[in-house]
Amino acid sequence: MIMKNSYRQNSSKHHAGFSMLEVVTAVVAASIIMIATLTAFNRIRSATHTMHKAIGSRDKVSDVLQLITEDLDTLAMPGSDTRLSVRNHTFRGITRARLTIENRIYDSSNKAHTFESVTWQTDYDPDSQSFILYRAHGGMALEDPILDTVGTEESPSQEDLQDSDLEPFIPVATGLTYFEILGMANGRELQTWASSKLPTAVKIVLSFADPVEVAPGEFEILEEDLVTRVIAVDRTRKIKYSFMKEEYELPDPNDFSYEEDQEDLDEDTEGEMTDQSADELEFEENE
User: Which UniProt keywords apply (predicted)?
Assistant: First the structure.
């Protein structure tokens, strides 16, 4: 009987319910997760509204190209440790493009940290059968010149920006039918750029035009519907110019033979004009 009572006591302890502290802890944890989810959703919605407001009702193509140009001019600055990567990936016949610009700084222990980074990439939307262009901003820098949300309630803290989960991809433009990013160096256009050195320029090709059926079941974007812009990286760099002497040969002021040739040319021209005047005078006398 003693062993049986002991077993019942152990069984009752094993099937004991949750304590009040455990219930409160679970509720608080669920509330924190819900608040974080709503905060992230509000940030994405606010950033999307700001981005669409920046684009406005003007020309989408020029606005998108201008936004990418501003990111390149801001981050790819001389004297800074900037990494730029370009990738065009084709999967199941759909090509996705991605451009990442990362600006790094180093601490006292010479450890690299991402000060600011911007990523542009496309993803296919099967509902509209077109591409959506996304942009993500992250790093230690709080200010995003495009979104301009610094000082507002939606502006996240520096600790939040260091968390990659709080760097959402914001849709910038929809309805893209073609988007390609190429790295340019030494006169070549590269589909992929992963070097630690910056390319000479970045070439962007995009279009919002509808595809045209060029063959039964084969659709393409016409070349005249493609908009191309070549964006120079680090515009303050030194550029070596080569002087084309054959096409733009200037006279040497110390070369006296040039003056003699010029005098002979003037005499020939004057003689032709004199002969022409004499012919005109003779024609008038005959009349």
Answer: Membrane, Transmembrane, Transmembrane helix
